[in-house]
Design the sequence.
């Protein structure tokens, strides 16, 4: 038996979430906010937290600094039941930090990389040998150039060990979207959002992507299943170049969309590790988990539990018949 079900690889940092009048106006203008919260952030950390909350045995491989932000990250992960034995602590570099300017249906993110780019392939290999996961999920590819340079080698090594792989690149701050042609045929599941799918498809095919359907079909033709996150509309899957399934999100009161895509990933991977045998069922898990996460501030505060997800996914009871 393996030590964990899923090893999540990538970024872990605090998110300073600001809400209210968050559009900056320079010229020494002072603006008053509605709220400010320091929360667990980083795509990989949010996915790991979401998986653990859904009952999946989960570990995280990442790097934090030997500072108060690093301790904050480790404490929040451990509170959620995430195995942090593969989280390395750097004494030379500060923990990364993201400042999120949040509005109800959109957000802007300012990130100090800090320790985020310091994770290495050798460290991930050591974590895999120690924890023996069934599945490895990689997040924030473009924030980790050192890891990205050797990622094809890592993925070949993982596949030889029988480990399945998923990838969520997240946004490319440089706007280049390069390096994925070699990676996508090696992954089982690619999990972009709609904008990322369009950008990656254009970079890979060298032609402008004309809509999510064509982008998803083109990317899945490379050999991976492509699951595109479409916000409130849920998600849509493609496999071997054709449509494979769709599921809608839930109708909820939106407080903050931070990390909703990462919670979607967690729901999908939990279904993949569990008893969900059809793509539509896995998409329903994912869309529901993403929807439930927006009920509170930050990426992890209202992530779905197993019982919450079961309740919203259960079919409604038939109305009682009267004579």
Sequence:
């Amino acid at each position: 038996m393996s030590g964990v079900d899923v090893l999540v690889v990538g970024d872990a940092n605090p998110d300073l979430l600001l809400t209210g009048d968050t559009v900056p106006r320079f010229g020494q203008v002072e603006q008053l906010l509605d709220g400010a919260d320091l929360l667990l952030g980083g795509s990989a950390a949010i996915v790991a937290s979401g998986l653990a909350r859904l009952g999946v045995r989960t570990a995280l491989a990442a790097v934090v600094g030997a500072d108060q932000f690093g301790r904050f990250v480790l404490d929040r992960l451990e509170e959620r039941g995430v195995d942090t034995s593969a989280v390395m602590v750097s004494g030379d570099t500060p923990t990364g930090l993201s400042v999120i300017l949040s509005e109800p249906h959109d957000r802007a993110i300012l990130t100090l990389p800090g320790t985020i780019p310091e994770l290495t392939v050798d460290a991930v290999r050591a974590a895999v040998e120690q924890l023996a996961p069934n599945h490895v999920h990689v997040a924030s590819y473009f924030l980790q150039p050192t890891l990205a340079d050797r990622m094809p080698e890592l993925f070949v090594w993982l596949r030889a060990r029988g480990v399945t792989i998923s990838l969520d690149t997240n946004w490319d701050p440089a706007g280049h979207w390069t390096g994925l042609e070699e990676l996508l045929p090696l992954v089982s599941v690619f999990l972009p959002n709609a904008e990322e799918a369009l950008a990656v498809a254009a970079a890979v095919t060298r032609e402008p992507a004309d809509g999510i359907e064509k982008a998803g079909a083109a990317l899945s033709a490379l050999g991976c299943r492509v699951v595109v996150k479409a916000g409130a509309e849920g998600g849509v899957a493609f496999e071997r170049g054709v449509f494979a399934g769709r599921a809608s999100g839930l109708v909820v009161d939106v407080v903050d969309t931070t990390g909703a895509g990462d919670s979607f990933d967690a729901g999908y991977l939990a279904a993949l590790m569990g008893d969900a045998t059809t793509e539509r069922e896995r998409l329903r898990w994912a869309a529901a988990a993403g929807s439930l996460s927006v009920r509170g501030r930050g990426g992890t505060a209202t992530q779905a539990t197993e019982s919450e997800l079961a309740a919203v996914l259960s079919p409604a009871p038939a109305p009682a018949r009267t004579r």
Summary: The chain has a mean pLDDT of 94. The two ends are 55 Å apart (CA to CA). The longest strand covers residues 33-41. The chain has one domain: 6-12+42-94+115-304.
